[in-house]
Amino acid sequence: MTTMVKVAKLAGVSISTVSHVLNGTRHVNEETRQRVLKAIEDTSYRQDALARAMRRSKTDSIGLIVSDGGEPSFAEMIRGVEQAAARHGVTLLLANSAEDPQREARAIQALLERRVDGIILAQAAGSAPDALAVFAQQETPLVLMDRLSDLPFDQVGIENRQPTAELVAHLSAQGHQRIMLIAGDTRVATLRERLEAFDDAVTRAGLPAKGQVKIAAAQADVVDAQIEEALDRPDRPTAAIACSTVLAAAALRIIQRRRLRMPEDIAFATFDGFAYADLFEPRLTTVRHPAFEVGVTAADLLAQRIEDKTAAHSLVRIAPTIEYRGSTGSAAVS
Amino acid sequence: MTTMVKVAKLAGVSISTVSHVLNGTRHVNEETRQRVLKAIEDTSYRQDALARAMRRSKTDSIGLIVSDGGEPSFAEMIRGVEQAAARHGVTLLLANSAEDPQREARAIQALLERRVDGIILAQAAGSAPDALAVFAQQETPLVLMDRLSDLPFDQVGIENRQPTAELVAHLSAQGHQRIMLIAGDTRVATLRERLEAFDDAVTRAGLPAKGQVKIAAAQADVVDAQIEEALDRPDRPTAAIACSTVLAAAALRIIQRRRLRMPEDIAFATFDGFAYADLFEPRLTTVRHPAFEVGVTAADLLAQRIEDKTAAHSLVRIAPTIEYRGSTGSAAVS
DNA sequence: CTGAAAGCGCTTACAG
DNA sequence: CTGAAAGCGCTTACAG
Fold it and tell me: In Å, how far are A97, A152, B65, B238 from A94, measured between CA atoms?
């Protein structure tokens, strides 16, 4: 491994000069500069980011921990963070908790040991409330992304009340009286908010409280059983809203198995949606997660926070848009 | 930030002792050890991985660069690498090239500057042949994953000849005489191999060379146009094989638009397949990418190589399995 | 069983 | 316009 010493020797200068040429931190005689540049080239010298970071107490890197990098909306948030990170000139270290609080804790630990300048975190569903305690007594900034919390950190997530209300109003306007909301694991704030917004939305749409079905459970098989039970009732719901892609998949499997037609037998809408969604028949009415923008905002908030650690915390909510498709019997192309 | 000096002072020992307690590198009097441990606890000391790495010339971290982390098979490979990396006790730094050679080059640069102990790379499609030159004149080990090359590096990928042959034989046995192979961007070795295997497979299945359609093009719109042209011929193919998920999506869009029924009007099979594939109607015959295993193997090869830089290079090919479904008119449940 | 000290590869005042 | 030297936070022979 070539170091600055070798480069300096070859160019006949001190390592100070090499450093200053490398970083453009002070004027260097043009001829000398060229000599240094040539020596760097000839030795294929590559700066040691570790040594540099140690000296500067700044790594120019940030960490991103997501709960499932494979899900389309998280993949998209990652892209947003990547883009903004590149713009801010910092390297992104990516980690995956796979919804496992232990892996999340290990990832946080590893990133802090690597002295990243800040961390963006989409918490795992079952993450303990004090998992973030480490950030309270410590100066590394944290931005919460998508999975919000009550704790005093910068946060960016999605607006949940308005789209839930809009969806319910839309279904009600089509004549649906009984709607099933599939919220899944309501330890996740996003899902909990959608569940809470549902009650309000039902009232405001003038629908009876009775007959509405709310499904909230952490385990997939319990969710499945409750969906099946609801669809077997004589007064079964005629419309369903899935609060995530995974929940939508679960519901669609059951709907297919029972050979229910969409939207004739059951109208269907989902939050987030599928990759290659245009291949579905009928196409699904979807609350589009503004994932890229959420990612960009998370990285921007973090950059700001790294600049100024004393400013008040921000909470940013980004409004999703609803794409009405054939699965709710809308006029749009199916 | 607490350092070892503070811990040492508090425990009334030297920093040598703190270091040895931390790493278990030499015996320390039990009572002293407890005092050090308590001091670490009280100061919430956290080891500085940067300083440690610099001193040891080893970061206990590896880099992984994929060309598209959002695609299901890459997401799965990432999981495999993560699991094996954890087993080897190294931290994984993940990066995404998004099929962009420039971003790939920057990612390689950033990882090398961070002095990772090794890199696993799934090259971008358009990556220049000399993109890997940097690894030749340099000791950081490289393992090529999924996207193979002719260069002398450790590599792990998927077996392509056998599944292609098997698929063609299967379709031929069902009476199909004209098959369309959609290979897409054959700068990608995997796709090129499938294309090459197709000719052999056709011959061996006793099908006429004439009437077979091979589509190879880097741009999506060119691929689309060629698929459409082929399906418009009077002697159009009655079966199609898509060589990747993206290509399958393109073909399925066209098939849906023309209201061709699967498998009656056209039999269809794909490599890799979709997330939530069980929601497709009919379900698609799929060559299942052994992605998790490929990821695990890549990380294992890298760990070996880090141990021993002089051993001969390995080339591992993992055989996929084919899941026959309704889209090729098989007996299996549709 | 433990400590003092060199050194990993940089950046950055300080001095000229 | 340039160089000598301190120091970032560790690990690890060396010495006792």
Answer: 10, 24, 11, 44
The alpha carbon of residue B330 is apart from the nearest alpha carbon of chain A, in Å, by 20
Q: Tell me which amino acid residue B133 is.
A: A
With distances taken from each CA to the C1' atom of nucleotide D7, the closest residue turns out to be A55
Asked if B70 and A76 count as a contact pair (C-beta separation under 8 A), the reply is yes
Report the pLDDT value the prediction gives residue B139, as an integer from 0 to 100: 86
pLDDT in tens, chain A (334 residues): 789 999 999 999 999 999 999 999 999 999 999 999 999 999 999 999 999 999 999 999 999 999 988 888 999 999 999 999 999 999 999 988 999 999 999 999 999 999 999 999 999 988 887 889 889 878 899 999 999 999 999 999 999 999 999 999 999 999 999 999 999 999 999 999 999 999 999 999 999 999 999 999 999 999 999 999 999 999 999 999 999 999 999 999 999 999 999 999 999 999 998 989 899 989 999 999 999 999 999 999 999 999 998 899 999 999 999 999 999 985 443 3
Whether pTM > 0.85 for this model: the answer is: yes
Q: How far is B280 from chain A (nearest CA, A)?
A: 7
Q: How far is the CA of A15 from the C1' of C11 (A)?
A: 10
In chain A, the residue whose alpha carbon lies closest to the alpha carbon of B75 is A70
Q: Which of A50, A252, A278 sits opposite B54 (nearest CB)?
A: A50
A126 CB near a chain B CB, below 8 Å?
no
Q: Å between A9 CA and D2 C1'? A: 15
**Helices (DSSP H) in chain A: which residue ranges?**
4-11, 15-23, 30-42, 49-56, 72-88, 101-113, 133-136, 161-173, 189-204, 220-232, 245-257, 291-307
* Rounded Cα–Cα distance for residues B316 and B153 (Å): 11
pLDDT tens across A229-240, in order? 999 999 999 999
**CB-CB contact of A91 with A118 (8 Å):** no
Calculated CA dihedral for residues B45, B46, B50, B56, nearest 10 degrees? 90
Tens digits of residue pLDDT in B22-43: 999 999 999 999 999 999 999 9
| B1: chain A residues, CB-CB within 8 Å | 139
d(CA B258, CA B244): 21
Residue A187, helix vs strand vs coil:
coil
Q: Which of A310, A177, A304 is nearest to A239 (CA)?
A: A177
Contact A281 B49 (CB under 8 A): no
Domains in chain A, ordered, with CATH?
A: 4-47 (1.10.260.40), 61-158+293-319 (3.40.50.2300), 161-290+322-328 (3.40.50.2300)
CB-neighbour burial class of residue A263 (10 A; exposed 0-12, middle 13-18, buried 19+): buried
Sorted by sequence, the CB contacts under 8 Å of residue A181 that are 6+ apart come out as A194, A195, A198, A212, A213, A214, A215, A240, A241, A243
With contact defined as beta carbons under 8 Å apart, do B302 and B120 qualify?
yes
The interface residues of chain B toward chain A in range 274-313, judged by CB-CB distance below 8 A, are 274-276, 278-281
